[in-house]
Structures are given as structure tokens and as C-alpha cells.
Amino acid sequence: MTGYFRVELDALSHLATQLGECADEMRSAMKLLRDIGPKGSGSAELEEACDDFQDSWGYGIGLIADATGGVTEGLAQTHKLYVALEQKVAEGFQGPGKAAD
Questions:
Q1: Which domain holds residue 56?
Q2: Is the pTM of this model over 0.85?
Q3: Is residue 51 domain-resident?
Q4: How many structural domains comprise the chain?
Q5: How many Cβ atoms sit within 10 Å of the Cβ of residue 101?
Q6: Is residue 35 domain-resident?
Q7: Residue 6 has what DSSP assignment?
């Protein structure tokens, strides 16, 4: 049969986990940059460049992390729905009154 749709449940679950970790790591990296910073490096240009980077990228990375969180929640919900659907299909093949293993 061609053109059928298949969902890899383990891969979907793994992707949701990885995206959640990515969002956490982005926020953590920006916090470390903000907290550590090059203050007192002796180079005004370096300190200004680091501040500019944090100002510019901090906001964008925060937005990406927030969006990633939304995608992660959506993937987790999608995974849950597909698992429930697979269970219902398996029960349908068992016949009336029989539960799937």
C-alpha cells in the first residue's frame, strides 16, 4: 500500500524531550553570559561587544526558547493522542469485549 501515514512514536517522544532540553540550555547559556560577562577585561571594545551581543541575542534567544517550549508542549500532546489512537486501533482488531495486551 502506498501513501500511508506512519508515526514513529519513540522518535516523536525523543524529539519533544530534546527540544525541551534545548530551550533550557539556551536560557542557561544566556544567563551564564549575562552573569559572567567580560567586565574588567581591560578592553572597552570587548566589553561593549559582549554587552551588545547579550542585548541583541538575549531577546531573540529568549523568544526562540519560548517558541520551543510551545512546540515541545504540542509535540508531547500529539504523542499522547497518537498513543491513545494506536491503543484504540489495537482494541478494534481484538474484537468486541476483548482488551489489547
A1: 30-89
A2: no
A3: yes
A4: 1
A5: 5
A6: yes
A7: -
- pLDDT, mean of residues 81-90: 90
**Location of C-alpha cell 544567563:** 31
Mean predicted confidence (pLDDT) in 57-69:
86
Residue 19 burial by Cβ neighbours in a 10 Å radius (0-12, 13-18, 19+): buried
The distance of Cα 85 from the centroid of its chain, to the nearest Å, equals 23
For the chain, the 3-state helix, strand and coil shares in percent, each to the nearest 5, are 80, 0, 20
Pull the grid cell for residue 61: 534567544
Residue 40's pLDDT is 66
> For the chain, how far is it from start to end, CA to CA, in angstroms?
27
Judge whether 74 lies within some domain. Answer: yes
With a CB cutoff of 8 Å and minimum separation 6, the contacts of 97 are none
Q: Give me the pLDDT at residue 77, please.
A: 92
Q: How far apart are CA 91 and CA 77, in angstroms?
A: 21
